[in-house]
């Protein structure tokens, strides 16, 4: 089957040059971001040999990725957890940007890893199947038509649907569905897992996937965005009655603060849901979250790990939140008519990305095998603080792709 394209805001514009970008290839992004993209692609290329037989851990240690630690009888470097797909995601972006078969040859064997993971039901008790199978399988299917990838992604979608709690209209985030501590709980990150459901409806003709995704997104719109346009990190529903109960946090500064990465997920996730549904209320939700995010940035445009912190704070920045926000702002702007709001988001995306490239990237730091430094995974638990992380790297490369390849179609 030939891969199908989802809705696009502009006419199809495919890259006109299949070679590695260089400074003499002019784009609207300018030479600075071309250099940043070339540096990022070079790091991905070097990592092909380093990561050939294992998956890197979620975050770096002293700015270097090591093997994923063994867990639950799975060997070091095995395919488990929620972040392993960001590595193949970077490979497929690199292949699409350059046409270099080295990236494709590195990415294709990983399709089999993810097919085996879903077939053997390895670490599937999570909503993060959307992150995992969108980048590891939907992306190569879109680019190459690989039927193994499509089959694995559809099977993963069925597992994701098992987490849909009908009375509440939400997808449970974490844990066994019978775990009373997790039952009825979702998180703002889940918005980025719904594109897998929309995609599955497109390729199978089964409307229940898209219907569940839309209802889940509306529930988050109605209950996880506060009146001041900040977002809860997590929220609980009664799984039996469907009653909305309470919001909380796991990784933010406090239950009522605004965790920066969560706000960035909201900007991007609501905008992507609009791409699939044309539900204008979701576009407005993305705008609300974007406005709050932008109004609470420090002078260098890269967010502190929680938006409660402002200039003058010694709090840690989260470069990964900034990279996600760039992608979300670009997606949001693409659906708005010409005017001040669209321009605001476009300018902000360029400013944040330029700051990341100049101050937070590993360009000029060959001792690191990450793309982006100074990220935060989970500060309250002291996990991955002031380190690179796989999602930050992926979304930084996606942000550079969006900036240098107008009209690029996201894998989400």
Characterize the structure shown:
The protein has 412 residues and is mainly alpha-helical. The protein has one domain: Glycosyltransferase (Alpha/alpha barrel). It has 12 helices and 7 strands. The strands form 3 sheets. The protein has a 3-stranded antiparallel sheet, with no helix packed on it. It has a two-stranded antiparallel sheet with strand order 1-2. Strands 6-7 form a two-stranded antiparallel sheet. A hairpin with a 4-residue loop joins strand 1 and strand 2. Helix 2 packs antiparallel against helix 3, helix 4 packs across helix 6 and helix 8 packs parallel to helix 10. The longest helix has 21 residues. The radius of gyration is 20 Å and the shape is globular.
Identify the notable features of this structure and list them briefly.
two-stranded antiparallel sheet, Glycosyltransferase, three-stranded antiparallel β-sheet, 412 residues, mainly alpha
Indicate the CATH class: Mainly Alpha
Could you tell me the number of beta strands?
7
How much β-strand is present in the residues? 5-15%
Which strand order do you get reading across the main beta sheet? 3-4-5
- Dominant shape: globular
Second-tier CATH architecture: Alpha/alpha barrel
Main beta-sheet annotation: 3 strands, antiparallel
The arrangement of helices and strands along the chain is HHHHHEEEHHEEHHHHEEH
Instruction: Estimate percent helicity.
Output: 40-55%
Briefly note the structural class of the backbone.
mainly alpha
CATH topology: Glycosyltransferase
- Count of discrete alpha- or pi-helical segments spanning 4 or more residues: 12
Low-confidence stretches: 1-8, 10-28
Our measurement of the CA-to-CA distance between the termini, rounded to an integer number of angstroms, reads 19 Å
| Count of domains | 1
Quick check: average pLDDT? 93
Radius of gyration: 20 Å
